[in-house]
Design a protein that fits this description.
- The structure is a single chain.
- By secondary structure, the protein is an alpha/beta fold.
- A hairpin with a 2-residue loop joins strand 5 and strand 6.
- The chain has a nine-stranded mixed sheet with strand order 2-1-19-13-18-15-14-7-8.
- Helices cover 30% and strands 20% of the residues.
- The radius of gyration is 24 Å and the shape is globular.
Length: 636
């Protein structure tokens, strides 16, 4: 609930506002930026359209609510788009889904079958890259970049050969990338972490800053909680007793796999409900759920507190989730982060697939500031074409499970059909389960098993960050508030782009939220409930909570929402990252890979194969790329 009035918060201020639902622009009030009109590129083929370039401030935001309706209608909604217009277009490969997995599939296909292969990538959204989404702002003549989805490249020392091969093909130098990320900059300026406890839950608005070098006991002693709750927190943070005595290492890990982190804290460490608030949102950033739905063993694997007395060996075990397994396996602590998050990877792929769209193949440095000509993405003379605003609605073999495949998609409410020798489904598994004709019932069921993580990344351009400097923080963690975190942009320098270094400079502030259902033990149900919540929140509600949180937590340090906020983009991913199995909700995790639903879901179907991160049940770029490589290798 907002504490300040709308006028005080600047809700009517004439700023740039963008509301992106799964990458698609939706109405965001009177001051919303207008959608880019369709162009002539795809019109040559009989439908669709795209702008000539991606405007710096607005981006390519041309997909409408009608396009979103086509997605629902073309899958489970039973919409009738009429007989498709059959285009005179035949391809060697059609890729359904233009995220990183789909673009990587096109890349691997050309390497296997030759650069002359005719490829069409159809993408439902108004931009390529999927969750590798780029946000751009312009403040006082300065371009500000941020990720609007996928954040960074994680633990490349754990990657498989296909992902490393793609990075090499694209010229991505991990050492150079890490060198351009200044993880110590804010600390060098004396900035630390802040914590905000709102009046609604804690009696009065309380903002705390952790002083440089301050001990955990000192910080916890200042929390606006009872002494009992503080004692409970310190018992977790300094845990040294073996609360699973008499068990072997393997037995302890299996015990932790079968209890949630909340159950571990409550039942074995004796933590009360009041202190649990301090840990409730800790798993949100990794799994999109609260502590009541994440296995204690997974939390141990990523370094959550409370396990110091168990004496566990740092090795994965049967039933551990893939994220904690990766955390235990990697020895790479570098942060591999582009100024626009993962969008650079997709932009590099497109610059290789369709060089003319970027004026030639780009490097990881040059692509940061490069502009794409979107009219050239779908040029009829190009061997590779990317067709945006095109929702796949039917993929079927003409006869049996071999031979040509007819692919139907919908643009602006009208259906079109093309033909292809091969098809890679690089969209969500659930979508594929509805539009690929003739799949075995067992595979359809497996494709619908996982539930994608709903999440929100809000990006706020502010005129300066002096209020953060005055408060002595670069990041604020709010408790019992709508948002999970708010923080200054990661300091990066690459390809001529350099993020803000002076508090007087404009900067992007990042806020995140993973809506869920506290108290629900099954992860998939948390995600379903979170999606329902997310779709019921208006842009005005998002904006009000952004302004309210920043005003209340930083107002005493000079922040004025009405004056300082220059632009807001809300990236709402109702179907966000791939679902990752865990030992509480997914008993199949204890079985062999061959028996797990995601493996059944990715089986090839004649000339149709399955890519995307859902096919690995692992929401990371390298998983999406690995699955693209596998999908191409399965094509005969």
């Amino acid at each position: 609930m907002a504490k300040h009035g709308d006028d005080e918060l600047g809700m009517s201020a004439g700023i740039s506002r963008r509301d992106l639902l799964n990458g698609m622009a939706v109405a965001a009030g009177a001051a919303a930026l207008t959608a880019v009109p369709g162009g002539a590129a795809h019109a040559q083929a009989g439908g669709g359209g795209m702008a000539a370039s991606r405007p710096r401030q607005t981006g390519l935001v041309g997909q409408t609510d009608a396009a979103r309706a086509a997605g629902h209608g073309g899958t489970f909604g039973g919409a009738d788009f009429g007989a498709p217009k059959v285009l005179r277009e035949a391809y060697d490969l059609v890729v359904v889904g233009g995220g990183v997995s789909g673009l990587a599939a096109a890349h691997f296909y050309r390497k296997r079958f030759g650069d002359d292969a005719r490829i069409l990538v159809i993408e439902a959204l108004a931009d390529f890259g999927g969750h590798q989404h780029r946000n751009e702002f312009s403040v006082r003549g300065q371009t500000l970049l941020s990720n609007g989805g996928m954040v960074n490249l994680d633990s490349p020392d754990t990657w498989n050969a296909p992902s490393l091969e793609l990075m090499d093909d694209l010229g991505i130098d991990f050492a150079e990338l890490a060198e351009g990320v200044d993880t110590g900059f804010y600390g060098s300026q004396g900035l630390t972490n802040g914590y905000f406890f709102p009046e609604e839950s804690f009696g009065a608005d309380t903002f705390l800053r952790r002083a440089p070098g301050e001990s955990t006991s000192s910080l916890v002693g200042r929390l606006p909680l009872s002494q009992q709750a503080r004692d409970d927190i310190m018992r977790v943070e300094t845990a040294s007793a073996d609360v699973l005595p008499g068990m072997s290492d393997a037995e302890k890990k299996q015990a932790l796999a079968r209890m949630t982190y909340r159950e571990y804290l409550q039942n074995l460490l004796g933590v009360g409900d009041e202190a649990l608030v301090y840990y409730q949102k800790r798993p949100h950033g990794l799994w999109g759920t609260g502590i009541e739905a994440v296995p204690a063993g997974d939390c141990w694997g990523v370094g959550f507190p409370g396990f110091g007395g168990l004496g566990l060996s740092p090795e994965p075990y049967n039933g551990i989730g893939r994220t904690p397994a990766m955390s235990l396996t990697t020895s790479d602590e570098e942060l591999y982060y582009f100024p626009d998050g993962g969008a650079t990877v997709s932009r590099l792929l497109v610059s290789r697939l369709i060089p003319q769209a970027f004026g030639g193949p780009q490097t990881m440095e040059s692509v940061i500031g490069a502009s794409a000509s979107y009219a050239l993405l779908d040029h009829p003379k190009s061997p590779v074409r990317v067709r945006l605003n095109s929702m796949g609605t039917s993929v079927r073999h003409r006869e049996g499970t071999s031979g040509p495949v007819d692919v139907t998609y919908v643009t602006d409410g009208r259906a079109y059909q093309v033909e292809s020798k091969h098809v890679v489904m690089a969209c969500w598994n659930a979508v594929s389960s509805y539009i690929v004709d003739g799949l075995p019932p067992e595979q359809v069921e497996a494709m619908r098993y996982g539930v994608k993580v709903p999440l929100v990344y809000a990006r706020v351009a502010i005129g300066n960050w002096t209020s953060f400097a005055n408060a002595g923080v670069s990041r604020v963690t709010p408790y019992n508030h709508f948002w999970d975190s708010v923080g200054l942009a990661t300091p990066t320098e690459l390809g001529g782009y350099r993020s803000a270094r002076s508090p007087e400079d404009p900067i992007v502030v990042s806020l995140s939220k993973t809506p869920n259902l506290p108290g629900e033990r099954i992860t998939r149900e948390q995600h379903k409930a979170g999606r329902r919540e997310l779709l019921g929140v208006s842009f005005a509600d998002f904006e009000r909570d952004i302004r309210d949180l920043m005003q209340r937590s930083l107002g005493d340090s000079g922040f004025e929402a009405k004056r300082d906020i220059k632009a807001i983009t809300v990236n709402r991913w109702s179907h966000g990252y791939a679902y990752e199995y865990n030992s509480i909700a997914d008993p199949a995790i204890f079985e062999s890979i061959e028996q797990q639903p995601f493996n059944v879901a990715r089986r090839s179907h004649g000339s149709i194969t399955i890519a995307n991160s859902d096919a690995a049940a692992f929401g990371y770029t390298h998983a999406a790329v690995d699955e693209a490589s596998r999908a191409v290798s399965e094509l005969a």
